[in-house]
Amino acid sequence: MNRFNVTKKVGILGIVSNFLLFFIKIITGLIFKSQSMIADSFNSIGDVFASLMTSIGNKIASGESDDDHNFGHGKAEYIFSMFISISILIIAIKLLYDSVMSLILGNKVIFSYSLILASVITIIVKLALYLYTKKLYKKENNILIKSSMLDNRNDMFLTSGVLVSAILSFFEIYFVDSIVGILISIWFFFSGLHLFKESYNVLMDISLDLETKNKIVKLILKNKNILKVSDVHSVSIGYKFILILTISVDGNLKTFKSHEIANNIEKKILESFENIKEVFIHIHPV
């Protein structure tokens, strides 16, 4: 199963599971007046939207190179992950407002084992989804799968907070419910901010990190025919990069030999670095 089919499967699974969790949590939260459960239900509907964006972004990103998009459609992953991050930020602000107002007004949670059951079901489902998406992310290195993985991890811990507040309501300790709702909102906000930054960096053509560039230069200089490596530049095209650089060689070498050296270097770089899609080498005779 290729990278895009795996991501498609993750998106569909996320839509179905989060829809079910949303209905369980919103109904339970409204009946028993649990602000943290209501906040958690909006978290789930946000995850539905995120999974939908994952599916659409993955579909576009899977497109082959064409005359209008010479290096493919890989950046679609990051465009749609940015949509996901913006939706997360908007929902986080709304939930924060609702939770603060609940704390100020002193809303009381009606204790129910249904709240506890809904929380336990959510934690189990999210733990299973987290372990599944974590395994796939390590294999595919796809930011859309990563966003799903992080969502599942965050939801697991956040719903644990909802569970605690539900248990405390049995002892008539109500303010914790609103506090948990506030903490969920803040966590939600910073998760969205992190995802936004990661997507923004790729869309703004962030270059390869310095450590990777140094490794590439060291690999090239192992060839004794290379006198110098300069002008090492890179452009992101989604989860991979195009590498552009200049090598200095002996000016007395024949043109065929110089190009043979460049071709060998290109082959070694592509074999050694999975995140490099293409290499363009300028030969400078010295």
List key phrases describing it.
286 residues, mainly alpha, Alpha-lytic protease prodomain-like, Alpha-Beta Plaits, three-stranded mixed beta sheet, 8 helices, 10% strand
Q: How would you describe the overall organization of this protein?
A:
The protein is mostly helical. The protein contains 8 helices and 3 strands. A 3-stranded mixed sheet has the order 1-2-3, with helices on one face. α5 packs antiparallel against α6. The longest helix is centred in the first third of the chain and has 30 residues, at 76-105. The chain is elongated and about 85 Å long. It starts with a helix and ends with a strand.
Structural topology:
Layout: H1 3-31, H2 35-61, H3 76-105, H4 113-140, H5 143-169, H6 175-203, H7 210-221, E1 228-236, E2 241-249, H8 255-272, E3 276-285
Parallel strand pairs: 2-3
Antiparallel strand pairs: 1-2
Summarize the structure.
The protein has 286 residues and is mainly alpha-helical. It has helices spanning 3-31, 35-61, 76-105, 113-140, 143-169, 175-203, 210-221, 255-272, and strands at residues 228-236, 241-249, 276-285. The chain is built from 8 helices and 3 strands.
Q: Please report which band the strand proportion falls in: under 5%, 5-15%, 15-25%, 25-35%, 35-45% or over 45%.
A: 5-15%
Number of helices, where a helix is a run of at least 4 consecutive DSSP H or I residues: 8
Please, what is the average pLDDT? 81
Instruction: Classify the helix fraction into a percent range.
Output: 55-70%
Shape: elongated
Q: What would CATH call the class of the largest domain?
A: Mainly Alpha
Sketch the topology as an H/E string, one letter per element.
HHHHHHHEEHE
Name the CATH architecture of the largest domain: Up-down Bundle
